[in-house]
Amino acid sequence: MFAELPKGSVFCILVASMFPALVLIAFAVKLWEIWKAKRWLTAEGKVIASRVKSQVRTRPSGDFDTSDTEVENQPFVQYEFRIASQKHIGTRIAIGEKIPSVELKSTLARYPVGKAVTVYYDPADPKKCVLERELPFSNTTMWIGLGVVMLVFVGGPLLFAFSYFNGVEWFKSHLANPRQAPLVTVMGLFGLGVLFFAQAFTRMVRQATRWPVVRGTVLDSGTQEVAAVINDGYRTHYRSLVLYRYTVSGREYQGDRIAIGVVISSTLPWLVRQRSAKYRPGMTVDVHYNPAGPGESVLNANSKWHYLPWCIGAVILAFAWAVATGRI
């Protein structure tokens, strides 16, 4: 089968495999950091601050909106320790640069203010210090996440290639016009992929509708300018901006999501301004938050946007069926 692959197919598979390769490299780098941290010295320290740190950060450059921002809630734990007579301050918790949102609550619970802790520090540079120098190998979520990434970005291209070339051969022997086999196969696989995404998106929305609700306060509301990449150039887009604050179990968080999984941008500011106009600064709002990770929240958990991918998938499959039966 692979001897009959058209030119460029192997290259496409290799390109699709670059992302999991980068993930493995990043994982190897963290293992290297852990190995080096094994040689660090220890000192007795004390937690002097423990709270949620909310900050607005720029989305990764791989996203469509290259200047878009999002609110991130991370545990902030500050501790002090002494080496000889000199006092040092540290804030890094673990070797990992970012704590998963589902672990925010448990991380702060482990390090309340006043708790005595063991600090691991680099004797050559005590500013390099952590409270935890092991990756959470017992954390099932981490391993499941790594496995899913590898499955999607390694198994996905291989599965698509296998399905495509076998699908083309099957359709060639079942269609009145065999030349339409590649188009029907691609549209069919794409339509099924969209429906798979629609199912996952719908499940996410339904879970959000069951999240608990607390009262929050709108801090800011309006529109935000973002730079979108258009044909190797930049064009100004606008998105709705609603920043709000809420409290769960005595800890304060911030959020900026209006609806689940939907970030609408447009070149016409008045289109997105209507969405945020009803949220005025100082206004009290209902905030739905994820009980497993209170830093994840949304204002409108009953968004109807999850119906859109179902419609798109159905249209694509209907088009593939029409081509296959000669109606188009």
Shape: globular
Return the average pLDDT rounded to an integer: 82
How widely separated are the two ends?
A: 30 Å
Rounded to an integer in angstroms, the radius of gyration calculated over CA atoms is 25 Å
Portion of residues within helices: 25-40%
Give the biggest beta sheet.
6 strands, antiparallel
- Reported CATH architecture of the domain at 29-130: Beta Barrel
| Secondary-structure-derived class | alpha+beta
What ranges have pLDDT less than 50 throughout 5 or more consecutive residues?
A: 61-66
CATH level 1 class label of the domain at 29-130: Mainly Beta
Give the helices and strands as they follow along the chain. Answer: HHEEEHEEHHEEEEHEEH
Number of strands: 11
How large a portion of the residues is in β-strands, by DSSP E? Answer: 25-35%
Query: How many helices does DSSP assign?
Result: 7
Q: What is the name of the CATH topology of the domain at 29-130?
A: OB fold (Dihydrolipoamide Acetyltransferase, E2P)
Summarize the structure.
By secondary structure, the protein is an alpha+beta fold. It has helices spanning 9-16, 18-37, 104-110, 140-172, 181-209, 269-277, 307-324; strands at residues 41-58, 69-83, 86-90, 116-122, 125-130, 213-230, 233-248, 251-255, 265-266, 284-290, 293-298. Among the domains are: 29-130, Beta Barrel (OB fold (Dihydrolipoamide Acetyltransferase, E2P)), CATH 2.40.50; 216-288, no CATH class.
